[in-house]
Amino acid sequence: MNTEKDDFGIDIKKILQIVASSVALGLAIYLVTWVLDYLNTSFSIAVISNISLFLKDSWIIIVGFVFIISLWDYLYPMFKEKLTYIKPIIDATSLMFGLWIVAVILKGLTALLVDQAAQISILLNLLQKLYFEQFVVLYILFVLVAYSKLLWIDKKQ
After folding, report:
1. Which residue of 6, 93, 101, 123 has the lowest C-beta tally within 10 Å?
2. Could you report the per-residue pLDDT of 107-131, keeping only the tens digit for each?
3. Closest CA relative to residue 18, chosen from 78, 69, 94
């Protein structure tokens, strides 16, 4: 198989595939928001409006993050020795990104509940407020846990 690699052993075609898939994700998000906006002109449903607004406001963050993580997943195995001590930061950032998506969904679910005194509403509010108000503390916690795991594994070997 003929692959074009540069001096560092990086496959240029693979990098272009990562770029193309990220652009495709951006286009897919654009199409989804277009469809949601089109449907919402007829139905006028608040949930559809909120999803569309979230995607319009956050598409660059989502696409950028997917691009960076895809690039990381490709490069990390090739440069594992040099990137070992950066991996906990990337892992913590990935976890926080996933939790951000969950927190936004919880916030949306909370807004859908009519009775704000309901027990489920209190739990949903707690979880999303925990994320948004304690973001830095959670991030530092995840980074420290990842580094302690890394150092513990290195010590065992």
Report:
1. 6
2. 877 777 656 667 777 888 888 899 9
3. 69
Q: Domain residues for 27?
A: 1-78
20: its two tokens: 């193309």
d(CA 95, CA 1): 36
Other beta carbons within 10 angstroms of residue 13's beta carbon come to 11
User: Tokens representing 148?
Assistant: 């302690």
| Structural domains counted in the chain | 2
Residue finishing a domain among 31, 57, 78: 78
Distance (Å, rounded) from C-alpha 77 to C-alpha 84? 10
Could you please report the per-residue DSSP string of 141-155?
A: HHHHHHHHHHHHHHH
For residues 59 and 92, state if they share a domain. no
